[in-house]
Amino acid sequence: MHSYDLIGAGNPIMDLLARVSDDFLTQHVRGEKGGMVLVDADEMHRLVTQLHASPVRAPGGSAANTTVAAARLGLRTRYLGKIGSDETADTYHQNMLDHGVEGSRFKRAPLPNARCLSLITPDSQRTMRTCLGAAMTLAPEEISPADFADSRHAHIEGYLMFNPALATAVVDSARAAGCTISIDLASFEVVNVARDWIKRQIDAGVHVVFANEDEIHALYETKTPAYDELARRLASHGGIAAVKMGKDGAWIAHGSELHRIEPVRVAQAIDTTGAGDSWAAGFLYGYLRGWNLAAAGALGSVLGAECVQHIGPAIPESHWPAVSARATALATK
């Protein structure tokens, strides 16, 4: 019997959330809209000073978002990542503890905490620029199977793949500890630089892979809209493939199974920050509770839809009772 259902592994990042126009992106942001690019402290400062108002702070990080939401649903969770030694790091760490995430696997560095500027345009799309700070100093030799001991499942964010040696140490340690593994591909920029690494890991055995439209296109270097076929292709390596299509739902494939997951419609999507992470939390809750894939995917859609109706990656406290009630209803299906 494991003491923890899930351990998340990733970059513990404080999100800085700002609403901007498309013109702002054109004038001030280098690179494509909608993705994530790493920047240094000077570039982060330049972008923040161009904003018309101070950004809103919200604890984030892909695997951390998933871990917190999974804890809110009722899984026993812990988190592995490297935080800084400043006030931002202390706030981040306390937020995880306050939401029921066990914090003994955090590592610290005498540096500022990681930050991500999430620029939210009127179409609710987010373009992210990330300064990793302390998180960037997490080294492969700091990771061992002991970090994953007593955890049943390891959920690993794709952003770690910017450092292949670190990502390999994380995956290898999780496997050595006997964890089942899920990987969220995180961003098409990640896939473009780590495609070969991702394919090697999938061939070696990953129990669940999460990808959105851009990420699955980048992985297989195609633009086909046949996401059911792409899900089957990803699942052909033996694991579960969850291909998310935002407001159009998702496809889940595993072996001979193929499930179309209908979206949960919302009146207005305000911010997509963290929506995929919330979707993954809903799915992993069902998966680790032994639900069928369709029900687990349906709960993913519930959480993803709830997340996009609020600014930031976290579902507000007042909305969790309704989300939990829907999870209870799905558990009976």
Oligomerization state: single chain
Shape: globular
State the low-pLDDT regions, or none: none
**What does the largest sheet look like?**
10 strands, mixed
How many structural domains? 1
Q: State the end-to-end CA separation.
A: 26 Å
User: In percent, how helical is the residue content?
Assistant: 25-40%
Beta percentage is 15-25%
Radius of gyration using CA atoms only = 18 Å
Number of DSSP helical runs: 11
Topology-level CATH name: UDP-N-acetylmuramoyl-L-alanine:D-glutamate ligase
Element order: H for helix, E for strand:
EEHEHEHEHEEEEEHEHEHHEEEHHH
What structural class should be given to the helix and strand makeup? alpha/beta
Name of the CATH class: Alpha Beta
CATH homology superfamily: Ribokinase
Do you know the CATH architecture?
A: 3-Layer(aba) Sandwich
Mean pLDDT score: 95
Strand tally is 15
